[in-house]
Amino acid sequence: MTRTSIKPVLAVLAGQPVTPAPIWLMRQAGRYLPEYRQLRAKAGDFMTLCFTPALAAEVTLQPIRRFGFDAAILFSDILVIPHALGQRLHFAEGEGPRLERFGPADFARMDPHAAGNALAPIAETVARVRSDLPAGVTLIGFAGAPWTVASYMVAGGSSAETEDLRRFAATHPVECDHLVDTLVEATTAYLVAQVRAGAEVLQLFESWAATIPAPLVSRYSVDPIRRIIEAVRRQCPAMPFIVFPRGAGLHLPLYAAATGANAIGVDYQTRLETIRQHVPATMATQGNLDPMVLAVGGPSQDRAIEAILSETRGHPHIFNLGHGIRQETPVEHVARMISQIRTTR
Ligand code: 1CP
User: H or E segment at 201?
Assistant: First the structure.
């Protein structure tokens, strides 16, 4: 179909192919943008940025003003949930997240209902952004999926192979189930608050899907994601969800079939054609462009974009990267990508 009154992102999530494909980028608000770096320096630290609605709303809107994307994604982080549950978080300059050291007993004491008030400023950011958004632009709320968030909580920071969480799951299975249940409950409440404040679509990031031991994929990822989606929809009927299980490989069709997602996010290691064969015709796909290609630019960027446009022609697809935009990406490459997508028929 061509563009009509329904917002293009929402049309795709309802299963309709839209030309030109709607586009937004993971991490579209961030350090590749000079205006972001300026505001970030003014705020002082990342957490202040996340918890000050006027600043977070401004950062969310920066890429919309500059590029005219079809969706804005709330500016926040997946790690505000552990912070709100009492495990304090800070971002050391240039080093990534650092969480307070917690053990099994600390996780057992966490109260999923305790998160609500602490996250109120983020709902306010959502409301501010929604009221300032141009017509046709969709507001995406988000959260991390339980396995991914738990990997940071158990390790106290980033870990490439989620070793600490895999050890915790093997040595303390009961406590691990409990931690995942706590995150399902807290995440559900957090997402419902985002919807009530104005989020129109929700994305769940399972950024470390590649590290989940195969026998645990259902128990610690597919099932918790399905429970979150079902619980949100009990309070917010028919809420559209994008599920992005980065690196899930051969498990991707399981996420597509068993979570209740409207769209499946596709990383850059997976062929869109292959995924298409394993998902229902009305299920949308999103992503797949290698962020390195956008950072490098030039003819290889043009060709990679053309390949995705031709692979997805006639199918519901949201144009995006296969992971977050790289910090060194020149803004001109982003502008060029958008004009190519919007002029290709
Ligand atoms: O110094 C800075 O400015 C911090 C960089 C930064 C930014 C811009 C971090 C720290 N978080 C964010 C914002 C952010 N994080 C958004 C905002 C909206 C947008 O996309 O524009 C979103 C959706 C996230 C989600 C997020 N945070 C994920 C899932 C997506 C992914 O990248 O896989 C993860 C894993 C995080 C944790 C996190 N937060 C920040 C960093 C550097 C990291 C990753 C650390 C690691 O690699 O383990």
Answer: strand 201-206
User: Which residues line ligand 1 at a C-beta cut-off of 6 Å?
Assistant: 26-31, 40, 46, 73, 75, 77-79, 91, 96-97, 142, 158, 205, 207, 324
Start-to-end Cα distance in the chain? 12
Contact 266, 285 (CB under 8 A): yes
Kindly give the distance from the C-alpha atom of residue 244 to the centroid of ligand 1, in angstroms, as a whole number: 14
User: Residue 217: inside a domain, yes or no?
Assistant: yes
Look at the chain and report how many structural domains it folds into. Answer: 1
Q: Would you say residue 3 lies in a domain?
A: no
Q: Does the predicted model carry a pTM greater than 0.90? A: yes
- Residue keyed to tokens 């950062």: 59
Rounded CA separation 49/45 (Å): 7
Atom of ligand 1 nearest to the CA of 36: 3
Q: Phi/psi of residue 172, each to 5°? A: -130, 60
User: Which residue's CA lies nearest to atom 1 of ligand 1?
Assistant: 46
- Domain limits for position 46: 8-342
CATH number at residue 24: 3.20.20.210
In a domain, residue 325? The reply is: yes
The yes-or-no verdict on residue 4 having pLDDT over 60 is no
Distance 16 CA to ligand 1 centre (A): 30
Distance (Å, whole) CA 289 – CA 186: 32
The answer to whether residue 342 scores a pLDDT higher than 90 is yes
pLDDT in tens, 58-83: 999 999 999 999 999 999 999 999 99
Q: pLDDT for 109-167, tens place per residue?
A: 999 998 878 899 999 999 999 999 999 999 999 999 999 999 999 999 999 899 999 99
Q: Is residue 146 part of a domain?
A: yes
